[in-house]
Amino acid sequence: MKTLSFFQRSELTAILWAFRREFLVVGIFSLVVNLLMLTPTIYMLQVYDRFMISGSELTLVVVSAITLFLFSVMAFAEWSRSRLLVRLGVRMDEQLNSRVFNACFESHLNQSRDNPVQAFANLTNIRQFLTGNGIFAFFDAPWSPIYLLVIFVLHPLLGVLSLIFAAILTGLAIVSHRQTAAPAQKAADAAVEVGKYLQSKLRNAEVIEALGMLGHLRHRWLGRHQRHLALNSTSLEVQRRVQALTKFVRYSQQSLMLGAGALLVINGELTVGGMIAANVLMSRCLQPIDTIVGSWTSWQSARQAFESLESLLRDHPQRAVGLLHEDLRGAVTIENLVATASNRSQPILAGLSAEFPAGEVIAIVGPSGSGKSTLARCLVGIWPEVQGRVLLDGQPIESLDRGELGPFIGYLPQDIELFEGSVAENIARFGEIEPTKVIEAAQRTGIHDMILRFPRGYDTPMGEAGSFLSGGQRQRIGLARALYGNPSLIVLDEPNANLDDVGEAALIEAIRDLTAHGKTVFLITQRANILGVADRILVLGNGEIRLYGTRQQVMASVQKPTQPRAAENIGAANPQPA
Question: Which domain holds residue 46?
Fold first, then answer.
C-alpha cells in the first residue's frame, strides 16, 4: 500500500501525465531539430576545408541543395513541435477550466484565504509556459553534451573552454534564482496588496465621497504604493545586475572561443572551417543554458502556479454526486449542528438539534449575533465549517449534487446580489428561461407590474435597471429568484428588511401561497408583525435554542414570568418603538 501511495499522482499531475504521448512526440521532433542543428557545422567544414580547396562547383551546388533540404526539414520539425505544444496547452485548459472554476467557487464559498481569481491566472501561466521557449530549453538541454562532445572531437582545448563557460553560465543561473526570487516575490505581493486595497475602496466610492474620506484613504494608499515602487526597484536592480553579468560572460565566451580557435589554426592544430564550426557548436551548446537563464523567472513562476493550482484542486476535490430520484418534500432535521469560524474561538452555533416538518413556516428569531443567518446558511448547505448533520428528507445535504439540488432550494440572503444579465435571467437563475415560471415568481412577490414599467420589461439588463432600483425592489427581485420554479425548501433571511407595507403584504401573501402548496419556509426576521404566518417559532440566543415549538406554544411561554430571557429574545424581533 505504501508503494502504491508513493506513486499516486495528484489530480493536476495525472492530467499532465495523460499527455505523455504528446510530450514524447515533441521529444522526437526535438531529436530531429537538434540532429539537424549539426548541418551548419558540417556544411562549414566542407566549404572551408574541401570545396574552397578543390574548387568543385557542382559538388558545392549539390551539397548546398542538400543543406537547404535539411534546413526545411528542421524548420518543419520546429514548427510541428511548437504547434503540438500549443494544441496541448489548449486541451489541458479544456480539461481543467471547469474543474478550476468549481474549485475557485468552493474556495470562495468556504471563505478560504486563497485568492480564487488567481487560480485562472495560474492556469494561464502553466499553459503559456508549456508553449513558450522555456519548455523547449528542457527538450534541447540533453543535446548540449553531444555538441560538447563534437567540440572535443574538433580539439580538446576548445572542449575544455566550452565546458568552463557552460559551468559558469549554469552557476549564473543558480545565482540569478537566489538573488532575484525573493525580491521579485516581495514586489509581486506588494502589487497584489495595492490592487486589493484600491479595488476595495472603489466598491465603496459613494460612502467615501459623501463622508469626505478620499484624502485620508489616498494617504494610506500612497504608503502602500510607495512601498511597492521601492520593492519593484530593488527587484529590477538585482535582475539588471545579473543580466549584465550574463551578457559579459556571453560576449567573453564568443571572443575567447574565436581567439582560441585562431591560435590553434596558427599552430596548425585546427582548420579554418573547424574554428568557425567550433564557435557555432559552442553557441548551440550553450543556447539551452542561455534560454533557461533567460526564462528562469517564468520557470519559477510556472512552478509556483503549478503548486498553487495543485493545492487548490487537492483542497477542493470533485464532489461525489448524490442523485435525487424523486421530488423533495422539504422536511429538515438538524442533529448536533455546530457551526464554527476560523476567526472565532467560540462556535457560532453550539450543538443544535431539531426537526422541522415539511409544508410549514418556521420563523427563526433572536437578538443580533445569535446565529440566525449562520443557521440559514447551514440549512441550505453553504456554511463551510460545520459539524453534525443537516438532513433534507433524511439525506445529508452535503451528499446531494448541488446542480440537481438547486431547483429544489430557494434562498434569499440578507445582502442581495443581482448579476449581470436581464431581469428575467436573474429571476430564472441564469438557466433556460421559462416565461410562465418567471412571470409567476414575479407575480407572487408583487413586482410584475413594476418590471413591465422598465425600459425593456423583463429583458431590461440589470446593469441598466440596477441603477434606479431601490433596496426594496432589489430585495423583491431576489425573492422572486428564490421562489422561481416552486422550490420545496425556501430559506428567507430578513426578507422584509427593506420592504414597505405593500411589499410586506405581498411577502406575507407569497408565504401563505407557498405553504398552501406544501412548501417548507424558514423565515428569519426581526419584525414581530410577520410572525402571524409562522406555524412554528425557533428562538435562538448565543448560538443555542432557547425555545422551539408551535407559534401558540412559544408565544404562551413568552408570556410566562418564568421565561424572561425568552421574552427578551422575542422582543428583539420587534425593534420598532412602542
Answer: 9-132
Of the two residues 364 and 231, the one the predictor is more confident about is: 364
Give CA–CA dist 535/505, Å, rounded: 18
* Same-domain pairing of 402 and 481: yes
Question: Could you tell me if 179 and 269 lie in one domain?
Answer: yes
Task: Tell me whether residue 59 is in a domain.
Answer: yes
Residue 321 has pLDDT above 60, yes or no: no
Contacts of 518 (CB under 8 A, 6+ apart): 329, 330, 358, 359
- Is residue 312 in a domain? no
Do 403 and 499 have their domain in common?
Answer: yes
Q: Same domain for 254 and 339?
A: no
Indicate the DSSP class of residue 50.
I
Note the pLDDT of residue 523. Answer: 92
3-state secondary structure string, 415-437?
CCCCCCCEHHHHHCCCCCCCHHH
**Does some domain include residue 432?**
yes
Closest CA to 67 of 90, 41, 93, 91: 41
Grid cell, residue 324, equals 435525487
Cell representation of residue 280: 557555432
Enter the pTM of the model.
0.64
Cell (9 digits) for 224: 502602500
Residue 301 lies in a domain: no
For residue 232, which phi and psi values (nearest 5 degrees)? -65, -40
The radius of gyration of the chain's CA atoms, rounded to the nearest angstrom, is: 35
Does residue 28 sit in the same domain as residue 71?
Answer: yes
Residues 178-207 pLDDT 10s? 777 777 777 777 887 787 777 777 766 767
Q: Residue 77: helix, strand or coil by DSSP? A: helix
Residues 354 and 465 in one domain: yes
> Which pLDDT band, with edges at 50, 70 and 90, does 571 fall under?
very low
What is the CA 560 to chain-centroid distance, rounded? 55
Question: Using an 8 Å Cβ cutoff, are 540 and 371 in contact?
Answer: yes
Predicted confidence band of residue 467 (pLDDT cuts 50, 70, 90): low
Distance CA 430, CA 445 (A): 19
Strand order, beta sheet including 361-365 = 409-412, 489-493, 520-524, 361-365, 536-541, 544-550
Q: Give how far Cα 66 sits from Cα of 38, 56, 73, 547, Å.
A: 13, 16, 11, 93
Band (491; pLDDT cuts 50, 70, 90): very high
Quickly list DSSP for 450-494.
HHHTSTTGGG-BHHHHTTT--HHHHHHHHHHHHHTT--SEEEEES
Residue type, position 109, single letter: L
DSSP 346: S
- Cα–Cα distance, 298 to 557 (Å, whole number): 68
pLDDT in tens, 228-257: 888 888 877 877 887 788 788 878 888 888
Provide the number of structural domains found in the chain: 3
Q: Are residue 338 and residue 290 in the same domain, yes or no? A: no
